């Protein structure tokens, strides 16, 4: 590695985001039928043991019931897991918890997408936030929940974000993946 290179050699980007759901079939149906992802292959079950404890950091008696890969348009793939483990925490982490997270979905037409989620009975958390100033100026967002309580975000910034005028490079954008 030369002195002006940093990071993983050959890094291209994020291949997938993996997360555990309480019911794989329910989660796949939500991500395919409501969000618009495309389902691909599944694997499992895999019995626990020392290999899974070492490789995945789970209890040795864990069973990975199934996993399934999904593609979400021009963004990262998802790897959904359904586990059964004696020490499993079945509570969704809050954003403020260590390991707390959310998935954000970019849309071209925020209002149409929000109306669509509401029409499909999706729980919307609060009211949309419209940023008019600061580095995220131009962005509109709102959180919503998957049926099992996982927090998701709907966002749009069709004319870009305000930070872009001060930076030579831009954050990756699903509507313009090559830029």
Automatic annotation (TrEMBL):
Domain VOC span(s) in chain numbering: 13-157
Keywords of the record: Metal-binding
Domain of life (superkingdom): Bacteria
Stored InterPro entries: Glyas_Bleomycin-R_OHBP_Dase, MMCE/EMCE_epimerase, VOC_core
PANTHER family (alphabetical): BLR8189 PROTEIN, METHYLMALONYL-COA EPIMERASE
Name of the molecule in the record: VOC family protein
